[in-house]
Amino acid sequence: MANDEAETENVIAGTRKGRAPVPLSVLDLAPIGVDSTPTEALRTSTKLAQLCERLGYHRYWVAEHHGMPGIASSSPAVLIAHLAAHTSTLRIGSGGVMLPNHAPLVAAEQFGMLEALHPGRIDLGVGRAPGTDQATARALRRSSGPAGADDFPEQLAELEAFLGADFPAGHPYADVQAVPAAGMPAVWLLGSSGFSAQLAALLGRPFSFAHHFSAQNTMPALALYRERFQPSAVLDRPYASIGVHAIAADTEELAYRLSRTVGLNMLRLRRGSPGRVPSLREADEYPYTEAEEEFLANWLSTAVYGTPESVRTQLDELAERTGADELMITANIYAEDVRLRSFELIAKAYEMS
């Protein structure tokens, strides 16, 4: 690999921390607990990012969601700027920016500025889903037309051209500049199906798959990505991360109960009534129907939870089974102390530095 390509790949993969078989990273949705507020949720995200930096996690991403009472991360660029300013070495990025919601030039300016402020630490993960309901998506775009996911390849090409200032001669935007443009952040493609997997492969970009809510598609999507990967100036071989719900606690019972709070939150989201993340008591006392218990059991079957040693074993098995190059842990626990404790226990299980 040429020196410049090796340097680019190092930005993506980084130096592996501790004794984990693959790098461990974090996906944060800034969850708002039932007894909490958005301000408290964002304060917890800041504390968690600082803790993860000390513990040796590799990167820290925040997601874009809109109109959801239990998620405070509606503006990734703003939150990334805050988290990067309160850390010093941790890679910070988006997991992701939902590109159909934004003009590519706006996204290029935002992440060009982030890269200028924090050189070499910014990741730009982009996805093609709206991250919200259709009415909110229309309000975001000021358009009554379709969501625009089918235009994603063209939007992505524009975004990268603005970041790299390399529109071809004669292009309508050839004289348009994204300022500042101090260097390109690492651009990732995100997905929960085969579409983005194939596009990431075609473009030779790193790929992050949403295993945590689309587990049935994980292996097919990763297979497509690896089979169709085309080397690029960014990568000479495939590099894939997967998101995984992972909760560690001091006992198996507590980890199971905490996981059920997240599962109940997912249940409410899937039936169109999203809310704040429920407490242990609320999840314990919820009157599940037979169909709801089945949904929860299916969701828990793809989540990772237990004591630190058990979580490490499950994560290692998942990395081995999928061949993932990186695991991105998400844990939408309702309480700050328990949430921070979970990430600390996982780091200790891996003897991370």
TrEMBL record:
CDD domains: Flavin_utilizing_monoxygenases
Luciferase-like domain location: 25-325
GO cellular component: cytosol
Gene3D superfamilies named among the record's database cross-references: Luciferase-like domain
SUPFAM superfamilies assigned: Bacterial luciferase-like (SSF51679)
GO MF: oxidoreductase activity, acting on paired donors, with incorporation or reduction of molecular oxygen
Protein family: To bacterial alkanal monooxygenase alpha and beta chains.
Name of the featured protein: Luciferase family oxidoreductase group 1
Species for this entry: Tamaricihabitans halophyticus
